[in-house]
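Practice record 12: protein with protoporphyrin IX containing FE.
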Amino acid sequence: MLKHLHISMAYLSLLFFIVRAVWAVRETPMLQARWVKVVPHVIDTALLTFGVLLAITLNFWPLPGWLSAKLVALILYIVLGTMAIKRAKTPAKRAGFALAAVVVFIYMLGAAIQRTPLSWLG
Ligand code: HEM
C-alpha cells in the first residue's frame, strides 16, 4: 500500500512537472496561479514521505546502491527543475533544463524499477 502510494505520487509528480515546464516555456500566466504553486509541493512531500516510510519499514539500511543513486539524482532533478520553472531567463533555456530534468526523472524510475544505479541499462 505504501509502495503503491509512493509509485502513484512519482508518476503524478512527473506529469505535473511536465505540464508546468510547458507553461514555463510558453510563459503562460497559469503558472502563477496559487494552486499550481502549492499542488507540486503537496505531491512531492507525499512522494518523499512515502519513500522514507518505505525505506524504514523495509529496513533499507545501509542504503542499497540504487536507492543512494536515486537520492543523488533527486537533488539534481530539483536543481534542474527550479532552473526550468523559475530561474532560467529565456524559453529556450527553460526548455533545455526541463528536458534534462525529465531525463533525470526517467533515470530515477529506472534505478527504482531495475534496482541498480545503472537504471534502465541494468
Ligand atoms: C526520499 C526519497 C525516496 C526514498 C527514500 C525512496 C524509497 C524507496 C524504496 C525503499 C522503494 C522500494 C520499495 C519496495 O522494495 O517495495 C522505492 C520504490 C520506488 N521508488 Fe522510491 N524513494 C524515494 C524517491 C523516489 C522518487 C523521487 C521517485 C521518482 C522517480 C521514486 C520512484 C520509485 C518507484 C517507481 C519505485 C517502485 C520500484 C518497483 O517497481 O519495485 N522514488 N522507493
